[in-house]
Amino acid sequence: MGTLQENSGQLVVMRCWCGIQHAVPASLRTEQLRQHNDGKNVMGVYCPLGHTHVPAGEREVDRLQQRLQAEKRILEAEREEHAQTRAELDHTEHRRRAEKAAKTRLKKRAAAGVCPCCNRTFENLARHMQSKHPDFAEAKRA
């Protein structure tokens, strides 16, 4: 026969997979759950038939690691998107500067009397553009 032992602390009733119900001190169960959540080796609690009971399910450490990995993936995706947007902005800015430079060169050449269509030099470029290249003036307005 077994001996009866008094316990002044709280007890937690557990059911083993074999169906046996047994009580363990609440502090033991709390420590077991803490170890499980912390990712440490969990001490087993045994039922009267000798079966080990350890907490099942996903540990808090695993959930936090998965969440951290998901956040890292999101951050990396946002960084890649930022880098792509920055590259597109740089390309657009480069193209805008090139177009502005070409326009400035064309204006300076026209001011110097060089025809932008045939590259000939004329003293009266305005008269030349109206008489020889009337469609050029139409295209500029549109």
Describe the protein in words.
The protein has 142 residues and is mainly alpha-helical. The chain is 57% helix and 10% strand. The protein has three domains: 43 residues, no CATH class; 52 residues; 30 residues, no CATH class. Strand 3 and strand 4 form a beta hairpin. The longest helix is centred in the middle third of the chain and has 52 residues. The N and C termini lie far apart (108 Å).
Q: Radius of gyration from the CA trace?
A: 42 Å
Largest sheet geometry: 2 strands, antiparallel
Query: Given the C-alpha coordinates, what overall shape results?
Result: rod-shaped
Reading side by side through the largest sheet, how are the strands ordered?
1-2
Average pLDDT, all residues: 83
Query: Which stretches of 5+ consecutive residues score pLDDT under 50?
Result: none
Domain tally: 3
Termini separation: 108 Å
Reading the helices and strands in chain order gives EEHEEHHH
Quaternary state of this entry equals single chain
Structural class: mainly alpha
What share of residues is helical? 55-70%
